[in-house]
Amino acid sequence: MKIGIALSGGGVRGAAHIGVLKALEEAGFEIGWISGTSSGSLVATLYAAGYTPDQIGKIFRRFSGCDGHSPRIIDPDYCGIVRAPVRQVFGKPFRLTGFIKGDKITETIRSLCEAKGFSIMRKSRIPLAMPSVDIYTSRTVMFVSDAARFPKNHDIRYVDSVSPWLAARASIAFPAIFRPVCFENHMLCDGGIKDNLPMEVLNGLGASHKIGVNLGYAGQCQCAIDNAFEIAAQTVNIMSYEITKCNLRGQTAVLIHPGIEDVSLLDLSSIPQCIQRGYEAAVESLPQLNRLLGLQNPVARLA
């Protein structure tokens, strides 16, 4: 049974998507369409390239340092961080668009995609979509595997003629943390600003049965917020939550909430835990998914 799945943003919590995909595959479901925002776009890109959930899990552990390696995927803009306040003190213009350059993440995704022959969005193994937002115009730039499937839209530009690593890098560009991505006449930032759970685009890709995995704010009280990034992320999550509620009205879908609000968005050591919680949440959602699909007999039973 083919299903479409939307993966939300959520920083390090995005590793939970790996566990969800693994559980669904083990249950006999085929992911026929996939979309992702922010950290969800990283998982979606690798999955669409042809990596298995187990392989994606190893990749996340490797670059996070969880397997004993030192993380080398984050490249802070130390020069810009030091120069910006100094230039401001002396009244000189400065340009610091993000604390993290993001070049190493781009090159890592590029290497992984090229190893699978996935060099342009049109070559995606399965239909794929990743949103980003143009800071200049507030317009959504939706990177998709087949732009011809979507009608022209004043509020959304659909693009399929770019590399998947550029699309993913644009979707993870959290404002002020990562440098935005310049693409043609756009300055692109995190797609979660407007669409943290890209469910609607799955309809355009052709999905009839959909699952959404929400790792952001889901209406609960969250007290484990103790730094500037967490505060900024939670602010965006709250805004995205209200937008997501509106976007989901009238849609038939199963929503999975792995319940990892206690995990810091930056805690790389929590990646294995997030993967496991995502797996468990997906297993718990199987009865609901089977009801949605109208299956008399579940596709499979997990041990």
Automatic annotation (TrEMBL):
A motif (DGA/G) lies at residues 190-192. GO terms for biological process: lipid catabolic process. The active site is at residues 38, 190. Keywords: Hydrolase, Lipid degradation, Lipid metabolism. InterPro entries: Acyl_Trfase/lysoPLipase (IPR016035), NTE (IPR050301), PNPLA_dom (IPR002641). A motif (GXSXG) lies at residues 36-40. A motif (GXGXXG) lies at residues 9-14. Residues 5-203 form the PNPLA domain. PROSITE patterns: PNPLA. It holds the Pfam family Patatin. GO terms for molecular function: hydrolase activity. PANTHER family: NEUROPATHY TARGET ESTERASE SWS, NEUROPATHY TARGET ESTERASE/SWISS CHEESE D.MELANOGASTER. This is PNPLA domain-containing protein. The lineage of its organism: Bacteria, Bacillati, Bacillota, Clostridia, Eubacteriales.
